[in-house]
Amino acid sequence: MFVLFSLASVDRLLDRLIEPIDSREDYSDLDLSAVAEVGNILTGAYVTAISDLCNIQLNQSVPSVAVDMAAAILDIGLMMTGYDENEAILISTSLAHGQHSIDGHFFMLPDVDGTRTLLRVLRRAPDHG
């Protein structure tokens, strides 16, 4: 599972969580820890929602933070799975406060059987509007 944020969104998030700074050249350990915790909270919420909706057990691991191009980060995740299939579940998210938003993308890379199960259940889920 991945939660991806643009650098601009990370900067807005850190301005809200820690303190506003005119320009961030590099991220401190505190900055990276705060981003990891937000990713952990978002991932936990999505995993719980999907698990409850599908009535299946899902687990998540301790988050890590990487600063790189999105394609490079996703490539590493796909290589780590070792699956021939390259399917993902994508949830776009936006945290809004006043005029500012922090936009991110949640990627879930289940194994082939997990993907089939999730998609089968999600396709049958009623539309709650």
Q: Which structural class is indicated by helix and strand composition?
A: alpha+beta
* Helix percentage: 40-55%
β-strand percent reads 15-25%
Rg over C-alpha atoms, rounded to the nearest angstrom: 16 Å
Q: Biggest β-sheet: count, sense, barrel?
A: 3 strands, antiparallel
The residue-averaged pLDDT reads 79
User: Which sequence of SSEs, written as H and E, runs from N to C?
Assistant: EHHHEEH
- Helix tally equals 4
Neighbour order of strands in the largest sheet: 1-3-2
- Which consecutive residue ranges, at least 5 long each, have pLDDT under 50? none
User: What is the terminal-to-terminal distance?
Assistant: 26 Å
Shape, please? globular
DSSP strand tally: 3
Quick recap:
By secondary structure, the protein is α+β, with helices and mostly antiparallel strands. The protein is built from four helices and three strands.
Task: Describe the SSE topology.
Layout: E1 2-5, H1 7-17, H2 29-54, H3 70-81, E2 89-97, E3 100-108, H4 112-124
Antiparallel strand pairs: 1-3, 2-3
